[in-house]
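Model: Ready when you are.
Researcher: Fold this.
Model:
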Amino acid sequence: MAHDNNKNREFLPLDIAILTVSDTRTEANDTSGGLLRDRLTVAGHRLADKQIDPDDVYRIRATVAAWIASPAVQVVITTGGTGVTGRDGTPEAITPLFDKTIDGFGEMFRSLSWPDIGTSTLQSRCTAGVANGTYIFCLPGSTGACATGWDELIEKQLDYRTRPCNLAELLPRLKET
């Protein structure tokens, strides 16, 4: 199949930061952030940082802005705050930072979520983009949504071996090597 991994290419680990957005989660009960941490390390990537911020647009934006300014972080994944109720504000915090949006990410995520949650997928405002050469993926807060986002989309696009193309090979640091 044309989009299988090419075993002739070497895996290149990336440095990934995870931000859980929640007013109630702690490290002890952050199942979504924990799932993402576990998935990325099992895949061979490195955890650059992991934080939990409350649902506050300016705190979220400050954390992510610091990561995209750091050469030690190539990818940021957020979980939580993408809904339409209450204090959900992750898209409002993050999208002003984007240099480019990756529109297909949200579209594909909602399409993949349809069999599991039906029309409730309309409430997901997950998004992705590039800021200062750093990929940013904003996922919903549920553990199931994080599993779908990582397993079906993010993992494959951050794997340098994925053909015909992937996001990893476009990272500036990889192009220089």
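Researcher: Now this one.
Model:
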Amino acid sequence: MAPKQRQIKIEQKGALAAMQRLEGRSDEELEAETRFRAAAQAILGARAAERMDAKRSREHFRAAIAAARPQERLQLRRMAEASLALAERRPADLKAAAEKLGQTPPTNRQLLALRFMGLVAPPPGAPLWLRARGILLILVLVIALLALGWAIVQVVSLPFGGVDKGVGIFWGFLLVCVALGVLFFVGRRRQKKARARQAEERAQAVAGRRG
């Protein structure tokens, strides 16, 4: 039994190392990968899901499962379930799939953000009324942000005699742009850290249960 156990451990280490090594490659390099095709296609599927491209994600995971060894396919299917739940904006399914996969489940804030994204940007193929609702929500959100920026400018300028409404709208617009820029910068940093953590979890998911 000892040689067989050692062989399994070596295979697990190889799969884990392959996932970690391939994570740093570009999409073009992953497409051309042949030695570790299953791992490369799984990474491409996860990246497509992060871009909310459910169709491409599903295609990559199908290719990954087809190229994988039998003992790897269950974990790849679980990875596909989690990735597609993300791409299709299904918060409850994403949480359940992440727990089944053994990954850290999304926080309530992340699930709320995904739910909101599902409202303003429904997945492709959604009914027309859902897409119309998303556009309407975006317009309402833009108007609300501009009104909030204008109100802040008006309140801040009161000790200095106030500003004209037209000028207030201009400065309110600039204030909203700056605030969104800061949020975008902070969000990108957090997203980068989250992707690094998810990459490690994906690698462990492929190799973690093969023994």
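Researcher: Key takeaway?
Model: The chain has a mean pLDDT of 78.
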